[in-house]
Amino acid sequence: MSDVHIVVLAAGKGTRMKSAVPKVLHQLAGKPIIEHVLAAAAALSPRSTTVVIGHQAEELRSALARHPHLQFVVQEPQLGTAHALLTAETVLHGKRGTLILLSGDVPALSAPTLQSLIQVHTEAAAAATVMTAIVPNPHGYGRIIRDGGKIARIVEEKDATGEERQVQEINAGIYAFDLPGLFDAVRSIGAANAQREYYLPDLVSIYRAGGRRVETVTVNDPVEIQGINSRRELADLARHIRRRTNDTLMAAGVTLLDPDTAYIDPDAVIGTDTVIHPGVSIEGPTQIGRGCTVYPGVRITRSRIADDAAVLDHSIIVDSSVGPGASVGPFAHLRSAAEVGPHAKVGNFVELKKTVLGPGSKASHLAYLGDAVIGESVNIGAGTITCNYDGSRKQTTRIEDGAFIGSDTQLIAPVTVGRNAYVGTGTTIREDVPAGALAVSAGRQRNIEGWVEQKRKKASE
Ligand code: UD1
Ligand code: CA
Q1: Which residues of the chain have pLDDT under 50?
Q2: Which atom of ligand 1 is least distant from the CA of 79?
Q3: Nearest to 433 by CA among 411, 418, 412
Q4: CATH H-level superfamily of 4-225
Q5: Which residue's C-alpha comes closest to atom 36 of ligand 1?
Q6: Which atom of ligand 1 approaches the CA of 84 most closely?
Q7: Which residue, of 195, 224, 323, 400, has the fewest CB within 10 Å?
Q8: Ligand 1, residues 56, 81, 198, 204: which to mutate, most atoms within 8 A of Cβ?
Q9: pLDDT tens digits for 94-146?
Q10: Is 365 assigned a catalytic role?
């Protein structure tokens, strides 16, 4: 399949989304709709991939800037799908091989289905091959009109007769075309129809009239060719993808206590014997090892959780990592770039940001640890705070192996607490603590005998 070129149509407006965000940039299963299409396209190792943009072109261009190999062509104004394809001629002029035309808003299309489209097209040496589906409710789609079993033409809903509207075989809007001669043929398409648009499906009758071969490939699962036109369709397709992902995970040995409320993106990887409780979101390319437990209400985004770790209820882990056998939560927040070491513990109401918590170290309750490098077997007492921000810059706190930080300690960074040092409860650390030393800063306690009784007397005078 070396001679494949791809064009993705994405210039249309997406009116029914009622959104300021371009339709194809709405999130579906962890990434923008069009990213699903581009992923299926990339699996074909095409020679080129061109995206036709128009409506909100600049937003799309910048949202897709991380794909350096994409080419963009602008269709302005948008006069229909045939006109959209013609704008790609500047990129594809004189090219040979097969053009695969995709729609930016049809995200469930799989790479194997695209491969079978190319195979049928190539084996039949067709000029065009149309992907079709048989659906119970064909409303809104172009209908496939056959003649002696062969595709004769495609008629749009708005131009169809009552009888044609009964046809349940629809045009998916996905095609394979033989490149030589394609653009000349597309140029001959007119706009004499109900919408005064240049319809690409008209190419079928033009090719048939010219005696050129047109084939069809019918998908097994119509969901693959479902376009997203509204928020309702977006939610329905998201649920479908979620189910498919969850079924795959369960088949591979992951326990989902309630698959209906397990929101796991398809890019996540989860090991065997991991147990996922209800109401959990696992987003982006997150990796979770074997034998882990993820309790209810947890969100894990773009993170790595090693084997046998536990993430307790209502914790949030973003762009962070958790080592083997470690425990996080309940109500913990690994905000970003947190590295929780092997068998370490992050407990209730503890927040970590850009912080390494070394192997076996514990911060069991109520702490903020930001921009800190914490060694092995360190104990962080309840209420410990790294004062990492001096109003203009972030500063680092270092706590070396075996140190003990008493409760209610403030560490005013930059500061270092040495190996096995001991910081007394209620200390404000402004200077480095040498290894093995005890640091205390709280004043001596005074007790004033009879103070309450005296105060009461004064008030009653
Ligand atoms: C199109 C097909 C219809 C098919 C259906 C499948 C035509 C005329 N009809 O209808 O037979 O059943 O798809 O979903 O092709 N676009 C542009 N520029 C334009 C117009 C459209 O880039 O000028 C893009 C849209 O952004 C979209 C795609 O082309 O990604 C399809 O356009 P849309 O208007 O949704 O076509 P349908 O009416 O759904
Ligand atoms: Ca559409």
Answers
A1: none
A2: 23
A3: 418
A4: Spore Coat Polysaccharide Biosynthesis Protein SpsA; Chain A (3.90.550.10)
A5: 81
A6: 18
A7: 195
A8: 81
A9: 999 999 999 999 999 999 999 999 999 999 999 999 999 999 999 999 999 99
A10: yes
Give the Cα separation of 400 and 135 in Å (integer): 65
0.70 exceeded by pTM: yes
Q: Which CATH number fits domain 253-439: 1.20.1250.20, 1.25.40.340, 2.160.10.10, 2.30.130.40?
A: 2.160.10.10
Residue 357 burial by Cβ neighbours in a 10 Å radius (0-12, 13-18, 19+): buried
Taking alpha carbons only, the member of 423, 287, 325 closest to residue 346 is: 325
Percent of the chain scoring above 90 in pLDDT:
98
pLDDT at site 2: 57
Ligand 1 close to Cβ of residue 289 (< 6 A):
no
Determine whether the shortest distance from the Cβ of 358 to ligand 1 is under 6 A. Answer: no
- Tokens 């589906």 belong to 133
The tens digit of pLDDT for each residue in 60-82 reads 999 999 999 999 999 999 999 99
Taking CA atoms only, the protein residue closest to ligand 1 atom 8 is 199
Distance, in Å, from the CA atom of 131 to the CA atom of 217, rounded to the nearest integer, reads 5
